[in-house]
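Lab notebook page, bench 4
Experiment: in silico fold of construct C2
Operator: M.H.
Input chain length: 355 residues
Purpose: comparison with the prior construct
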Amino acid sequence: MSALAETIAIQGRVLDHVLDLDLAPAVARLEGAERVWLVGTGTSEHAACLGAAMLATAGLDARASAAAAFVAEGLLDPRSAAAGFGADGDHDSAATVTDGASAPGPRPGPDDALVVISHTTETAFARRVREDALAAGTRLVTITAEGKDWPEAIEAAPPERSDTYTASYLAALLALARLALALGGAGWTAGDLAALPALVEDAGVEPLPVEAPPARLTVLFGAGPAAVTAREGALKLREAARVLAEGFEAEYLLHGSAVPLSGDDHLIALDPGGDPSGLTASLADAAACERIPVAFLDPPSDLHPLLAQLPLTVRLQALASRWADGRGVNPDRVILGAWADRALWSLGAPDATAR
């Protein structure tokens, strides 16, 4: 059995551990923040996107960014801090990036907080954001694996044994949901969070939405939080099973991205019943009319849409694991060849030198 499959099977226990963590120090650093920035790379960026939505339920102005984009915009570079604030401390105009798209926004201010998500603590741009935050004296919370050396960290999960990360993602989401609740969020209760480990365990053994990969492309899509899960699920399929997969927000799929799809592809609609506009379900109907196979993936009933992403994600993790087994590929060693060049991965780090 792969380390990926073994990790998927124990995620309920990992979440039980998260429920027992003392988050009071992190809550204290976030309380009263004018704005909270959440930063991560890859899967951790997806956690940042959902985490920002979770913290918003507590009335916080929470914003997610890819770590590389955050660094590129100089949002927290102490060397340019003087350009970011006037003498009275007002925010100056700058660009902030959420989900890869540039938009006008302020720089982090002295009353803002920063949440850096990095399971390994080795991700180059996340390390750079953290070090700049420490130099600037910004309120800082980090979410990492157990046994790392970041003293301010919430150590949410054991180190991943597979290159296809799973448990660390769900653990980060549950930690963020707990922070939101502690900060006054009314979207869910402690009982709702306590139910998640069992729901996650059940999700890992549910029937697969699609038994085998299609001839060409797997397309996952959904609305709101499910759009983030679509992107995360597509990433797991690409990493673990080495198949072509894409994740879309439903509206984005409609506006041109569906054009080249054919019967050689397969669509997976995530939580169509949770899309109040009806667009996710209508896109599935349109695909069926075009003779494109469509599968549906629904979360357990009566869960807040943000919490529902945990069991939904597990269904897609399990799909990636089973497809990897069926194709005879190793889901635990993913970054290989030139893609694994250490110099490539060090670019953007605080101590990196350009080449």
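Observations: Confidence is low (pLDDT under 50) at residues 79-105. The chain has two domains: 3-198, 200-327.
Next step: discuss at group meeting.
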